[in-house]
Amino acid sequence: MEKALNLEDGKYGKVNFDARYRYEYVDQERVLSTGRATAIDHPANASTLRIRLGYLTPEWQGFKAFAEYEGNQDIGTNDYNSTRNGKTAYPLVVDPQANELNQLWLNYAGLPDSSIKVGRQRIAFDNHRFIGDVGWRQMQQTFDAATITNKSLPDTTITAGYIWKVQDITSRSIGMNSPIFNIAYTGLPFGKVTVHGEWLDYDNTNELRNLASPIRSAAPPKPWGCVSTAPRPLSKTSRRCIRRNTPTSPTTRTIRSTTTPITGWARPGWTSMAWC
C-alpha cells in the first residue's frame, strides 16, 4: 500500500501506513490492603486495532518534515480497564481508545555528519529503559523535544537534546523539563558501549507516582540508604537505593517498582538517580 501511494519513488514525499491488531487476555488476582489475594471479578479481554498514517516531505535545502496520526479502537470484545473507560472491575490493559497527533517534527541535515530535529518525535535510547516509545502497547509514547545527533567520530553516535513534554501511552500530555544525552560506541568486537544521562524533571511532581510507589517513613533522616518493599527481606541485589533531600524532617520516600536504578524525590521539581 505504501508503495502505491509513494509515486515516482518518493519524489513528492513518502506516505507511511501501519496497522496492528492486538488481542490481550488477562486473568489475575487482586492484592487487598490486608495482604490477602483474591480473584478479580472478571478476566479482561482487549481486542484493539491501532492505525498510524504519516507523511514525510521530500528533502529541500537539508530540511524535511514529518507528520503522523495515530488512533486506537477496540473492536469486538472490550471488557478491560484501559484507565480511561471506567471499567475498573476488570484487570488493567493500557490500550485506551484514543486519537492523537503522534509525531510532528522538522529535521535539518545541512551540517556535516549531523541532524537537528525539533517537534514531537520518537526517541528511543538503547533498551528503552529510561527513554523509549513503549512499543509493547498500542499507543506509542513520543516526546516534544529538540535533539541533535552527530556521527563525526568513527563508530560513534552522539545524541543530545531537551524534552519539554511527553505524550504517553494513554495519550496524556505531561509537561517536563528534561535534558538528555546518549553516546554510543560500536567499534568493539564484543558489543556496544554507551554513556548516557537523563534528568527527568516533571512539571507536576505527582507524575512520579506513575513511575513509583510511595513509602512513608518517620525514621531519623539519612543521606543514603536501601529499603525493601517486600513483606520479607529482599536479597542485597534486589534492594532499592533512596536518597533523602530534606535532612531534618520526615519525607515521602519513593522508589521505582521496576529495576535497580531509581528516581529521587522529596524536593519538588527535580529528580536524582542512584544505584545499589
Task: Briefly summarize what is shown.
The protein is mainly β and 276 residues long.
SSE topology:
Blueprint: H1 2-5, E1 14-26, E2 29-31, E3 37-39, E4 44-56, E5 63-79, E6 98-108, E7 114-121, E8 142-150, E9 156-167, E10 173-188, E11 191-198, E12 212-216, E13 224-227, E14 240-243, E15 252-256, E16 262-263, E17 273-274
Antiparallel strand pairs: 1-4, 2-3, 4-5, 5-6, 6-7, 7-8, 8-9, 9-10, 10-11, 12-15, 13-14, 16-17
Describe this structure in words.
The chain has 276 residues and is mainly β. It has two domains: 2-203, Porin (Beta Barrel); 211-276, no CATH class. 1% of the residues lie in helices and 49% in strands. It has one helix and 17 strands. A hairpin with a 2-residue loop joins strand 10 and strand 11. The longest helix has 4 residues, at 2-5. The N and C termini lie far apart (50 Å).
What attributes characterize this protein structure?
two-stranded antiparallel sheet; single chain; disordered C terminus; Porin; mainly beta; 17 strands; nine-stranded antiparallel β-sheet; 2 domains
Helix content estimate:
under 10%
Structural class estimated from helices and strands:
mainly beta
CATH topology of the largest domain: Porin
Strand content: over 45%
CATH architecture of the largest domain: Beta Barrel
Report the radius of gyration as a whole number of Å: 22 Å
